[in-house]
Amino acid sequence: MLKELNKMSFLKEVDFSKEELETLIDLAIELKFKEKHQIPHRYLNGKHIALLFEKNSTRTRSAFTVAATKMGASVSYLGKEDLQLGKKESVEDTAIVLGSMFDGIAFRGYEQKTVEDLAKFSNVPVWNGLTNEWHPTQMLADFLTIKEYFGTYEGKTLTFIGDGRNNVANSLLVTSAILGVNIHIVAPEELHPSSEIQEMAKSLSEKSQSEVLITSDIQEGIYGSDVIYTDVWCSMGEEDQLEERFELLKDYQVNQHLINLTGKNDTLFLHCLPAIHDLNTEMGALCFEKFGVPCMEVTDDVFRSEYSKVFQQAENRMHTIKALLATTCGEIF
Question: So where does L-ornithine get bound (predicted)?
Answer without folding.
Answer: 167, 231, 235-236
